[in-house]
Amino acid sequence: MKKFIIIISAMILGIASASAQKYALIDMEYILKNIPAYEMANEQLNQVAKRWQKECDDLTKEAETLFKNYQADMVFLTDEMKQQRADEVKAKEQEVMELRRKYFGPEGELYKKRESLMKPIQDDIYNAVKKLSEERGYMMVIDRASSTEIIFASPKADISNDVLAKLGYSK
């Protein structure tokens, strides 16, 4: 009977260890900070965003000036002229809103620019993580930078430097 229990216990332990899954962690922020192309793309995006924001701000100032002039001249204007000037102010404000949407909206130019600059970098990282996972048998790789649920993880489980090395940015 003892032999039977020992054999069953050994089989259960064997099955449990065979089904053990390997996990790894990466720190995406750390990886991105160590990729020069990402820093350059980020700087380029910031410059473009500042230029477009200045353009929007200038147009907003024009709209404000039109409105202030309209208010100042209101007592001297006929009803028809008041309507015309009010329409001009509305048109300028609409132009500002359209320009902001064009540049900064959900499908705006900044989004498209970010997508075109960042997607190749993200794809390279994904492919490096995938290749490392296949080589080492990881069932799952978790980004510790974006996961608030990870309280503690052993530094041994972090493969961020390995990902950088796979990308050619050894640390």
Secondary structure elements and their pairing?
Elements: H1 2-18, E1 22-26, H2 28-33, H3 36-73, H4 79-104, H5 109-136, E2 138-143, H6 160-167
Parallel strand pairs: 1-2
Helix pairs in contact: 3-4, 3-5, 5-6
Word description of this protein:
The chain is mainly α and 171 residues long. It has one domain. Helices cover 72% and strands 6% of the residues. The protein has 6 helices and 2 strands, in the order αβααααβα. It has helices at residues 2-18, 28-33, 36-73, 79-104, 109-136, 160-167, and strands at 22-26, 138-143. It has a two-stranded parallel sheet. α3 packs antiparallel against α4 (79-104), α3 (36-73) runs antiparallel to α5 and α5 (109-136) packs across α6 (160-167). The longest helix has 38 residues, at 36-73. The protein is elongated.
Q: What attributes does this structure have?
A:
mainly alpha, 6 helices, two-stranded parallel ribbon, 171 residues, single chain, elongated
The averaged pLDDT comes out at 87
Distance between the termini: 57 Å
Low-confidence stretches: none
Please state the structural category.
mainly alpha
Beta-strand content estimate: 5-15%
Helix content: over 70%
Beta-strand segment tally:
2
**Shape label:** elongated
Number of domains: 1
Largest sheet properties: 2 strands, parallel
Number of helices: 6
Order of helices and strands: HEHHHHEH
Radius of gyration: 30 Å
Give, in spatial order, the strands making up the sheet with the most strands. Answer: 1-2
